[in-house]
């Protein structure tokens, strides 16, 4: 074990003087990037709006599309298209949000 | 009641809470500025610029703070890297080797041993100054110092040992000088 001079150790361990803030913190805060909150809020509104619009469109278009597919004799259960469309809309919106965060 | 650093960091990460970050800055500005002043051999203006840059970098990358080390240790690491980058920018011609780490020539008369520990520490090499400051002034363990400076544990121990020997020789020399005058 290496011995350190007691005087030296005492001096090294002595508490250093505190530096007064004197506007330092404010200066740092001024240089921070703008808060993310507004961006996330906008993103949430966009997500909500897109999901709502997509759902309304799906509900409106589901029946005509089902009828059209029925007339073409394609064997696809009607509600399945609506459910698939809703899942697609929601998962695409969530994926977009996750990717952009 | 004051929130601990981890709680404040969580608030910054989750809500981008500037007031939580302000508390972190207020809490750590003095030791951080003292640390950088020691690295710059007491150049307060440059040290404060680097301290600001350190906090801004910390804010930008705060989500990467994993909480394994103390927040202050993480800050010292950013500060040390920021200082080294600045040093390279200022002295691009100087190869970053022993020359840059070399101790400053010592004028024994200027080292008032009882008065100015900063002058004493300024006789050490750059990395030794950082090691001594973090270990003795900030009370970091050897392991934490190694983490903060991104150097192996053995390097910290050898820097301390060599630095102690150098300072001990300086103190002894100073004491002899004091006795003869």
Element layout with pairings:
The complex is a heterodimer of chains A (101) and B (181).
Chain A: H1 6-13, H2 24-30, H3 37-71, H4 78-100
Helix pairs in contact in A: 3-4
Chain B: H1 5-15, H2 18-39, H3 44-60, H4 71-90, H5 98-101, H6 117-121, H7 126-137, H8 142-149, H9 153-180
Features of the shown structure:
heterodimer; A: 101 residues; mainly alpha; 4 helices; 0% strand; rod-shaped; B: 181 residues; Rna Polymerase Sigma Factor, Chain: A; Arc Repressor Mutant, subunit A; 2 domains; 70% helix
What would your notes on this structure say?
The complex is a heterodimer of chains A (101) and B (181). Chain A is an all-alpha fold and 101 residues long. Chain A has one domain. Chain A is built from four helices and no strands. Chain A has helices at residues 6-13, 24-30, 37-71, 78-100. In chain A, helix 3 runs antiparallel to helix 4. Chain A is rod-shaped and about 95 Å long. In chain B, 35% of the residues are buried. In chain B, helix 4 crosses helix 8. Chain B is elongated and about 65 Å long. Chain B folds into two domains: 1-93, Rna Polymerase Sigma Factor, Chain: A (Orthogonal Bundle), CATH 1.10.1740.10; 103-181, Arc Repressor Mutant, subunit A (Orthogonal Bundle), CATH 1.10.10. Chain B is an all-alpha fold. The interface between A and B is medium-sized, with 28 and 33 residues.
